[in-house]
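Question (not urgent): is this output format expected?
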Amino acid sequence: MADKKSNKELKKSSNYVNRELSWLKFNDRILGEAKDKLIPPFERIKFLGITASNLDEFFMVRIASLMDMVHAGYEKPDIAGLTPAKQLEAIIPETKAFMNSQYITYNRSLLPLLEKNGLRVITHHEDLTEAQGQYVDDFFNKDVYPVLTPMAVDASRPFPLIRNKTLNIGALIRKKDSEETEIATVQVPSVLPRIVHVPGNQEGVQEVILLEQVIEKNIAKLFLNYEVICVHPYRIMRNADLTIDEDDAADLLKEIEKQIKQRQWGEVIRLEVEENIDKALLKELTKQLHVAKENIFFINGPLDLTFLSKLSGLEGYDHLRNPQYTPQPLPEWNQEESIFDQIKRKDIFLHHPYETFEPVVQLIRQAAVDPNVLAIKQTLYRVSSNSPIIAALALAAENGKQVTVLVELKARFDEENNINWAKMLEKTGCHVIYGLRGLKTHSKIALVVRREEDGIKRYVHLGTGNYNDVTARLYTDTGILTASDSIGEDATAVFNMLSGYSEPASWNKLAVAPIWLKNTLLELIRRETENAKAGKQAHIIAKMNSICDPKIMEALYEASNTGVEIDLIVRGICCLRAGVPGLSEHIRVRSIVGNYLEHARILYCYNDGFEEVYMGSADWMPRNLDKRVEIMFPVEDEEAKQQAKHILDVQLSDTLKAYILQPDGTYVKQDLRGKKRISAQDTFCKEAVEAARKEKAVGEDRRTFEPITADASF
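Got this back:
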């Protein structure tokens, strides 16, 4: 073992990675999936679209926050030793290089691949045939022209507000009897599909063109008395981070509604333009939008690649996608039996999307109509637009149940949706709490209080993911349904804390942020450290989305230096360094990027052979541990504990989708020579299908089924 480092040495900035640069590496791993030739073409374009959507949010929130700090003169360095200004100096060039890689992938790899497989994306209106050009013109005249509003700019007409993330077309125009040029702009309407189908020239090949090219081709029709000198699309990104002074916000609901509207007026932090844009037009756009030179991004291709999510959904190309997977029923789950009887019999372990989200929905649905249910309490962070959970809560209130719902209004980019749900729930008679002052409530907990023959019984759902039936099919999450008395008591205490600011003196089983959770994590890590110091076997396995909390990382470094084996499965941001001699030689970090978004948080501690497993809603980040209401809960039922351990074991065995963090901070996929090809997500799909088949066979006539083959795909 290398020489151990002192606590002072562990704090050195060189031991850590900047959070934003680490996030860019995560987005680069997603781009790696778009480049992977083993993945079906339409899955690859979907991944490329995800990288664009991710980057938009990164700019609107993270880059915007750094710019705010620079404007405010904030110069405190981060854990990696970079001030906000230095971070921007590093991030902007890195982002431009990343976007260049996006468009190389799009232009050189995906466009030819799509055309080879029967889908041609016409990149410029000049490439249309005469017949296609006439079709496009007719489409413009009939469907597009009536929607457009061209905006000219002159002494009497100021430059209009360009809305955040909208695609626009800028033009330099000149009156036919004048030498003076003017700038004009028109927004590409989001109410119309961006992908326009045109008649094809080859049998079996579908051809499409983007809406902005249709408008460009017909731009002269918008400025009949002008000569159009040049025309180019452009797109801006604004600061969309909400800044709410909750101490001064007497009505949090109204304050957030106001701030949502302000997003359209935030500072322009990125201007995207075509790389061949006319210099005079660019100069005018830069002046009108007040954009710094370094925040101009020159694009070799269509602006805003998020349209690829729509393109990947075109009908007729199922053979170019992964087969659709259907979440499986839980083994031994009986839809005909009362859910309360089933939970009371034993804890139920949930693993989405491999297994259905339906038991969670059924808990609230059955509670809503059960005459013995007295109260339902639940936290909501993000829910779907047609949420069955919301409908069940509303029904419960109408049936006279005491329904208390905490709707987190500060859930980023879901604020407006949550405001609408909160108002609707209030109208049905639910008691709605709008979060806690200064804290986001990110915990996922539901409590049902039921009167039974032997007294009051509490049923609890605790999970790692949101109460969203749509994302439950896209995100990997875990949870438990339990009738544990001690957890039920803790759940009651959680809601009393949320509704009445009543902090319990102690907890039976739960660890709750922002007061108790971080200390609990540190104690668990230190216990393994002490065991290693005593010469005992010590092992930590932790799965999460991100890790950047300084105290947690320092504790992990110290544990590694005492010989604790540490395996981290971190989807996104990872600010610690792995495998560095004398610092983290016993720490291994992997990131799994696959069809589903890895979202579960699971912690395993060897504990000198008395193994413990925890799950929860929190990542190991300061925002989660210090500024949010989060819950970590133990998995104590032995069968459920084995299921959680199995998830970790399979993910640590993944050789196909796992990227391994190197000591120099790069991520690489494993060399498959001599290794079995294992995809954790495919393995879980196969296991869920096989378990459902076996249960169905037992339930029908005790017939047995042959195991599915190892090369089956989903």
